Amino acid sequence: MDFSPRTAIVTGSDSGIGRATAVALAQAGMDVGITWLDDEDGAEATAEEVRAAGRVAHTGQLDTTRLDECGDAVDRLADALGGLDVFVNNAGTGNTAPLLELTLEQWRHTVATDLDGAFVCMQRAARRMVAGGRGGRVIAVTSVHEHQPRVGMAAYTSAKHGLGGLVKSMALELGQHGITVNAVAPGEISTPMNDQTDVDPRTIERPGIPVRRPGDAWEMAAVITFLASSASSYVTGASWVADGGMLLMGPHGGSHLVSDDWREA
What residue ranges do the domains of the chain occupy? Predict the structure, then answer.
């Protein structure tokens, strides 16, 4: 319980869950490294929110498909922050190509972004934490599809399953260094990735989700902030599903479907 995080990096924090997480960690007292892929203005807006919370913010471009470069991007931000206590792997992508139409290029891009690049960045962050000798927190944002597949998302589902396995393996090996590793698995969240940016999720009706609505990025940030804190000291290797009860609806969804529409992406 003596872990007191001072610095964090949140990848893909130019919008959505990443932006909310960066700001929430700043409000919890951390200086934050912010990464962006193609929206530098979005990253700067996040940085201004972090600074408004009284914390230091640094930004840097990160393309997780560039496997020979993305680890160095993590190191540059850690150097700028003066250390690394918390690493949140949030950057990701997806596609909705049906399996028989999924190209190898689409497959490789999704897996490289969501799994290969995540491995490089999380490993680099873990090395920094071990060298620092203060323990740490590694948190990966996966998806409910880490646990259950969906039609038209073979590459995404496979990558997120793999990322969930990586989290567990890292937890086994890094616990001796005082580093915990966990996943947060969001359901449907009102974010740009789901074409719902700037939409109040409470205005969207979702009868198939027990809480009857999508989630909000700030609700995911709250779970991540807990896992980044000293209060989560005995939690590791777990996947924290934050989906409003969506995964519980499997048998109900199956028995209540009245058309074959679900077979299409």
Answer: 7-263
